[in-house]
């Protein structure tokens, strides 16, 4: 049963992010981040499970450290009021970027992210993977410079997420490492016109919503449970197509923002960075294929789960809408 206090905290969480996005001073940005952090902690709580409480505590500690570093960099820069795009020294600039990168969970500051998601429900996982990244990303967007630190973070995020994701059987951890991998692409797209980042984030959020919605309805958390989708062939095909789209395989919708990012990186002569991103994305495509294997194999015994089959009309409707977007994505974005 939905509790009223969760609605209040959900609204203040949104307000905190909006305060950060619309702020013109560092102090109000920091205040917005803190309001957002203090509001999401009660949303992570679950009365009949101790794991969300542990995840909420880990998330609070890491985000508090990142917020402290963010405020510390502003104090060292002797400016809490004006929002300036230049820092007085490289050390302050590095502390500032580390604080933001820690908040979004990019490698090598990523260790907390899979552990936090592992203890949460699918709905809270979706919040962590999408909404909680908006405010820090907007701050990064307004003060972005393609420094050596950012290039190293992009490479580490792409490399570590692909390698560490290979050994996982938990779907929540796989989605967490997938998010870290997509962060590397988002950081690369920020260096271009900001519309590429916006397109990437919206498409990533849309595809993640469909996948998480399907996994939540089927109560699926581990690889061996994916066989439940074999009880419904059309739904099975659609959820697997969405995984391929999330991996950026052409001609699916998820390929479009990656293609825009590759095009811009080649335009500014970052050929090595482009090659690294593509190679490690191929590794993640293998991970998505491993997820699909248990539900796509011809010898799989069909699972006749009546409760799940009764829920599939809603899933079918949602997946069909995304599938239509996948099929018509070249037409939709032809003139962008």
Protein architecture, described:
With 336 residues, the protein is an all-alpha fold. It has two domains: 1-104; 146-336, no CATH class. Helices cover 73% and strands 0% of the residues. Helix 9 (171-190) runs antiparallel to helix 10. The longest helix has 26 residues, at 51-76. It is globular. The N and C termini lie far apart (44 Å). The model has no long low-confidence stretch (mean pLDDT 84). Its EC number is 7.1.1.2. It is a multi-pass membrane protein. It is an enzyme of class 7 (translocase). It catalyses: a ubiquinone + NADH + 5 H(+)(in) = a ubiquinol + NAD(+) + 4 H(+)(out).
Essential attributes:
about 325 residues; mainly alpha; globular
Strand content: under 5%
User: In one word, what is the shape?
Assistant: globular
Helix and strand sequence: HHHHHHHHHHHHHHH
> Count the strands?
0
**Helical content, roughly?**
over 70%
Runs with pLDDT <50, length 5+?
Answer: none
| Structural class category | mainly alpha
What's the overall average pLDDT, rounded?
84
- Structural domain count: 2
Number of helices: 15
Radius of gyration using CA atoms only: 20 Å
Distance between the termini: 44 Å
- Largest β sheet strand count, sense and barrel closure: none
Sequence-ordered SSE layout with sheet pairings:
Blueprint: H1 4-21, H2 26-44, H3 51-76, H4 90-104, H5 112-118, H6 122-129, H7 131-142, H8 148-165, H9 171-190, H10 194-217, H11 233-246, H12 255-267, H13 271-296, H14 306-327, H15 329-332
Domain NADH:quinone oxidoreductase/Mrp antiporter transmembrane: 23-279
Family: Belongs to the complex I subunit 2 family.
Pfam families: Proton_antipo_M
């Amino acid at each position: 049963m939905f509790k009223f206090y969760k609605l209040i905290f959900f609204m203040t969480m949104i307000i905190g992010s909006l305060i950060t996005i619309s702020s013109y001073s560092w102090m109000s940005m920091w205040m917005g981040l803190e309001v957002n952090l203090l509001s999401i902690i009660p949303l992570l709580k679950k009365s009949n499970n101790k794991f969300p409480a542990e995840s909420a505590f880990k998330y609070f500690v890491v985000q508090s450290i990142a917020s402290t570093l963010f405020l510390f960099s502003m104090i060292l820069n002797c400016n809490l009021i004006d929002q300036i795009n230049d820092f007085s020294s490289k050390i302050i600039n590095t502390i500032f970027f580390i604080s933001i990168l820690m908040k979004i969970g990019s490698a090598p500051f990523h260790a907390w992210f899979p552990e936090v998601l592992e203890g949460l429900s699918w709905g809270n996982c979706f919040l962590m993977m999408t909404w909680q990244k908006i405010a820090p990303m907007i701050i990064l967007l307004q003060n972005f410079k393609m420094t050596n630190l950012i290039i190293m973070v992009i490479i580490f995020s792409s490399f570590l997420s692909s390698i560490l994701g290979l050994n996982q059987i938990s779907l929540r951890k796989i989605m967490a490492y997938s998010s870290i991998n997509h962060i590397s692409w988002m950081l690369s797209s920020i260096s271009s016109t900001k519309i590429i980042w916006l397109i990437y984030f919206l498409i990533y959020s849309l595809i993640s919503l469909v996948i998480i919605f399907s996994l939540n309805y089927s109560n699926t958390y581990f690889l061996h449970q994916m066989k439940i989708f074999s009880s419904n062939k059309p739904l099975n095909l659609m959820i697997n197509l969405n995984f391929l789209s999330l991996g950026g395989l052409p001609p699916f919708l998820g390929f479009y923002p990656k293609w825009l990012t590759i095009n811009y990186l080649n335009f500014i002569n970052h050929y090595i960075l482009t090659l690294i991103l593509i190679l490690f994305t191929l590794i993640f495509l293998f991970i998505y294929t491993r997820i699909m294997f248990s539900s796509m194999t011809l010898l799989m015994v069909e699972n006749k789960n009546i409760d799940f089959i009764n829920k599939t009309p809603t899933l079918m409707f949602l997946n069909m809408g995304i599938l239509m977007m996948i099929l018509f994505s070249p037409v939709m974005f032809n003139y962008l």
